[in-house]
């Protein structure tokens, strides 16, 4: 199935254009719909499009989930979406999309990780208690489904460093890391490459320097 993928800036402009059109110009941007006293708008400016994996269709679906949660919670901010409803909507959209992307059994396997980057040996010894070849085969099935990818590792030393892998879909990563609250997840697991604007899903709370596929050495900046 063909799927459009836009840049974060294009997604942002698309959402704002739709809001202007459907509100007859009353609403100029999505920021105007968010609780101005909450902490979410600044984060959403950076990360909202990335939770849709830059898919216009998934972005619209996620915004719809936010509105559904606001209606359900009825926080009472007038025409604005509360921080609570926005987070609940994002998380509902992540869960829904993750279940569409991969089988439930595979999603349950990934939930066991409690981390977003790893080596074969780490998972084989510490999580699944299986042989390295068996773990390699399991990771290969995750790669085939497009939710895990091999990444470059600044920690690698020696002539044959171990391969490091990372979850490659933000929605799946959020489901895997449900033990963290929303803002902990943003702060500890996501960063944006300043060179190419790619989202890097890594365990930044454990290692503060990672290589992007563009070759840039990305340093973690606490937010």
Q: Layout of helices and strands, plus pairs?
A:
Blueprint lengths: L7 H15 L17 H12 L4 H18 L9 H19 L2 H8 L5 E3 H9 L3 H13 L3 E4 L12 E4 L2 H7 L5 H8 E3 L6 E3 L7 E3 L5 E3 L4
Antiparallel strand pairs: 1-3, 2-3, 4-5, 6-7
Helix pairs in contact: 1-2, 3-4, 4-8, 6-7
What is the arithmetic mean of pLDDT? 88
When the domains are counted, the total is 2
Order of helices and strands: HHHHHEHHEEHHEEEE
Question: How are the strands ordered across the major sheet?
Answer: 1-3-2
Strand portion: 5-15%
Main beta-sheet annotation: 3 strands, antiparallel
Which parts are unreliable, with pLDDT below 50 for 5 consecutive residues or more? none
Topology-level CATH name of the largest domain: Arc Repressor Mutant, subunit A
What is the share of helical residues? 40-55%
**Overall body shape:** globular
User: Given this structure, which CATH class of the largest domain is correct?
Assistant: Mainly Alpha
Radius of gyration: 19 Å
Instruction: Note the total helix count.
Output: 9
Please, what is the CATH homologous superfamily of the largest domain?
Winged helix-like DNA-binding domain superfamily/Winged helix DNA-binding domain
Tell me the structural class.
Answer: mainly alpha
- Tell how many strands the DSSP assignment holds: 7
Distance between the termini: 37 Å
- Second CATH tier, the architecture of the largest domain: Orthogonal Bundle
């Amino acid at each position: 199935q063909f799927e459009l993928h836009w840049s974060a800036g294009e997604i942002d402009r698309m959402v704002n254009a739709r809001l202007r059109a459907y509100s007859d110009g009353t609403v100029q941007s999505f920021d105007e719909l968010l609780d101005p006293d909450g902490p979410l708008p600044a984060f959403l400016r950076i990360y909202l499009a990335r939770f849709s994996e830059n898919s216009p269709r998934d972005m619209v679906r996620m915004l719809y989930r936010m509105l559904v949660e606001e209606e359900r919670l009825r926080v009472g901010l007038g025409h604005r979406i509360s921080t609570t409803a926005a987070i609940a909507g994002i998380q509902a959209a992540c869960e829904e999309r993750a279940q569409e992307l991969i089988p439930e059994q595979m999603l349950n396997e990934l939930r066991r990780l409690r981390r977003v980057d790893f080596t074969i040996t780490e998972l084989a010894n510490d999580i699944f208690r299986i042989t390295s070849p068996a773990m390699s085969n399991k990771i290969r099935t995750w790669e085939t489904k497009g939710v895990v990818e091999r990444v470059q590792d600044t920690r690698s030393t020696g002539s044959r460093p171990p391969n490091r892998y990372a979850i490659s879909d933000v929605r799946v990563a959020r489901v895997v890391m449900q033990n963290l609250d929303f803002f902990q997840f943003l702060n500890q697991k996501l960063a944006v490459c300043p060179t190419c604007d790619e989202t890097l899903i890594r365990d930044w709370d454990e290692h503060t320097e990672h290589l992007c596929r563009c070759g840039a050495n990305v340093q973690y900046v606490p937010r």
